[in-house]
Design a protein that fits this description.
Layout lengths: L35
């Protein structure tokens, strides 16, 4: 469950629940224009 590669992990960068840019690996909400 602590695995970052887990597809069920909410911290996953591919998570659709991410309020920030989906392409952002760190999900930086301060830089939504950054790819």
């Amino acid at each position: 469950p602590a695995s970052p590669a887990s597809p069920a992990s909410p911290a996953s960068p591919a998570s659709p629940a991410s309020p920030a840019s989906p392409a952002s690996p760190a999900g930086q909400p301060a830089t939504p224009a950054q790819p």
